[in-house]
């Protein structure tokens, strides 16, 4: 999709009738200084949002503004709004240093609720890929969230359910948004998600008349396991009926050093990958990739595949060494699950 086509798409599909939920999309980003350029995944999130949903406006809320080629290309199609970090979360004393390093994510948790409660519209994380338009009936509801399968987490299983705050939609001043925000402050304890997914489900049980809940397939069909991350980035799933958007769980696989079991990281999500790969993500994102954006030729794609093969072999060797070290540290005894490392 060229810049000219993107601009035409941005202008052509705007809703002219008044709806309960305004046809505006909100994204929150940059709650920490930006040391890396805006990524292609983020560009394609915004471009697919505009191309699929034809919003009246796309608001990009940030504390630290992005930079780089992809940002420069998408910036003219956005309304950028500066936000200040929440004082409560900013000053919170975390007991877990690992979770504390993710404070920026908790700041975004608060910001998205504040924005939806005040202005209404649709919120989505920037690691989202939009697949099909939201039904018109969604814009006449007070508040909507998508359900996660209970088996995804121990906390969700114990609570009987979880609603993921990576996608939310509501009218201005929606009662559910206000109550969810109030209880977020009350329940915030410095854990990763006690104040978000499980709390959202708990509030929905207390006030079921305030919210409509979509099944997992609508927004969270693919989970963060190696199998489903592979189904998105390494294999092609063609049955996308009933899927409005795909959450990509980028924090699970973003860094190459993590060596995610799906054998994928941010460095492999390139223009050449989107142009040539036969995968779920590439097939959906391809129409929104301008042909002059980055290197997309077949030779570049072949080189990237060769490099990925070499890197995969290195990952496998390192994982094997780690397993052997743990096996030796246990004195040759099997792991707690009874399995001997392969």
Could you characterize what this model shows?
- The protein has 342 residues and is α/β, with parallel strands linked by helices.
- It has a domain at 3-220: Alpha-Beta Complex (Spore Coat Polysaccharide Biosynthesis Protein SpsA, Chain A), CATH 3.90.550.20.
- The chain contains 15 helices and nine strands.
- The chain has helices at 3-12, 40-53, 69-74, 87-90, 97-100, 103-119, 154-159, 175-187, 194-206, 216-220, 226-233, 250-253, 271-276, 280-285, 298-329; strands at 24-29, 57-62, 79-82, 121-124, 128-130, 143-148, 162-170, 212-214, 245-247.
- A seven-stranded mixed beta sheet has the order 3-2-1-4-7-6-8, sandwiched between helices.
- Helix 6 (103-119) packs antiparallel against helix 8 and helix 8 (175-187) crosses helix 9.
- The chain is globular.
- It starts with a helix and ends in a 13-residue tail after the last helix.
List the helices and strands and how they pair.
Elements: H1 3-12, E1 24-29, H2 40-53, E2 57-62, H3 69-74, E3 79-82, H4 87-90, H5 97-100, H6 103-119, E4 121-124, E5 128-130, E6 143-148, H7 154-159, E7 162-170, H8 175-187, H9 194-206, E8 212-214, H10 216-220, H11 226-233, E9 245-247, H12 250-253, H13 271-276, H14 280-285, H15 298-329
Parallel strand pairs: 1-2, 1-4, 2-3, 6-8
Antiparallel strand pairs: 4-7, 5-9, 6-7
Keywords:
alpha/beta; 342 residues; 9 strands; globular; Spore Coat Polysaccharide Biosynthesis Protein SpsA, Chain A; disordered C terminus
Strand order of the largest sheet: 3-2-1-4-7-6-8
| CA distance, first residue to last residue | 46 Å
Beta-strand content bin: 5-15%
CATH class of the domain at 3-220: Alpha Beta
Q: Quote the CATH topology of the domain at 3-220.
A: Spore Coat Polysaccharide Biosynthesis Protein SpsA, Chain A
Sheet bearing the most strands, described? Answer: 7 strands, mixed
**Low-confidence region ranges:** 337-342
């Amino acid at each position: 999709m060229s810049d000219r086509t993107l601009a035409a798409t941005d202008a052509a599909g705007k809703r002219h009738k008044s709806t309960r939920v305004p046809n505006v999309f909100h994204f929150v980003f940059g709650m920490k200084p930006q040391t890396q350029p805006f990524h292609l995944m983020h560009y394609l999130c915004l471009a697919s949002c505009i191309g699929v949903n034809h919003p009246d406006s796309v608001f990009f809320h940030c504390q630290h503004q992005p930079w780089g080629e992809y940002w420069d290309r998408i910036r003219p199609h956005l309304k950028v709004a500066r936000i200040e970090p929440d004082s409560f979360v900013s000053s919170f004393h975390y007991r877990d240093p690992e979770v504390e390093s993710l404070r920026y994510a908790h700041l975004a948790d608060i910001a998205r609720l504040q924005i939806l409660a005040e202005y209404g519209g649709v919120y989505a994380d920037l690691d989202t890929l939009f697949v099909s338009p939201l039904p018109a009936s969604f814009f006449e509801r007070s508040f909507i969230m998508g359900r996660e399968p209970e088996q995804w987490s121990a906390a969700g299983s114990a609570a009987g359910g979880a609603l993921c705050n990576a996608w939310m939609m509501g009218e201005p001043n929606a009662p559910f948004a206000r109550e969810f925000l109030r209880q977020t402050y009350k329940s915030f304890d410095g854990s990763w998600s006690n104040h978000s997914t499980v709390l959202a489900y708990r509030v929905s049980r207390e006030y079921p008349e305030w919210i409509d809940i979509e099944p997992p397939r609508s927004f969270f069909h693919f989970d963060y396991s190696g199998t489903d991350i592979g189904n998105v980035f390494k294999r092609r799933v063609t049955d996308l009926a009933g899927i409005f958007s795909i959450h990509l769980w980028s924090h699970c696989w973003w860094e190459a050093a993590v060596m995610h079991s799906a054998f994928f990281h941010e460095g492999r999500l390139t223009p050449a990958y989107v142009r040539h790969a036969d995968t779920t993500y590439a097939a959906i994102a391809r129409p929104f990739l301008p042909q002059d954006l980055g290197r997309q030729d077949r030779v570049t794609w072949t080189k990237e595949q060769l490099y990925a093969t070499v890197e995969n072999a290195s990952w496998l060797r390192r994982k094997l060494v780690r397993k052997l070290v743990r096996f030796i540290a246990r004195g040759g005894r099997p792991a707690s699950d009874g399995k001997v490392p392969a």
